[in-house]
Write a structure and sequence with these properties.
Blueprint: H1 2-13, E1 21-24, E2 26-31, E3 38-42, E4 59-60, H2 67-82, E5 86-90, E6 101-108
Parallel strand pairs: 4-6
Antiparallel strand pairs: 1-5, 2-3, 3-4, 5-6
Length: 110
């Protein structure tokens, strides 16, 4: 009985979570004056594994007022100006805007 309960608990607690992933160059960056919202779109590989809440292809910087948010935004601008490739990993959440996935990390490449 204990083994059955443990197996059920393990299956229940290990529900899959989805987070997006994409590699490409910056197609567009948008910053809104009304609320400071920063989002961007990439050219390149198709976006993989995005959560169901992310109905759009743009990526959202979750909190543009924090140091981390400013660093993410700087990476996006640097990639756009240099034409270098970005690798974006999503957070699997859409907290900043209901249909765009929050960015977990960005890597600037060649």
């Amino acid at each position: 009985m204990k083994k059955t309960l443990l197996a059920i608990a393990a299956l229940t607690l290990s529900a899959p979570s989805f987070a997006g992933f994409q590699v490409g160059t910056v197609k567009s960056v948008t910053v809104r004056d009304s609320d400071g919202l920063v989002f961007f779109v990439l050219n390149g590989t198709a976006r993989e594994g995005r959560p169901t809440c992310a109905g759009q292809t743009y990526w959202m910087i979750k909190n543009e007022t924090t140091l981390a948010g400013k660093q993410l935004y700087a990476q996006v601008l640097a990639a756009q100006l240099s034409g270098k490739t970005l690798t974006v990993e999503g957070a699997g959440t859409c907290t900043r805007w209901p249909d765009g996935e929050d960015v977990r990390s960005i890597s600037l490449g060649d």
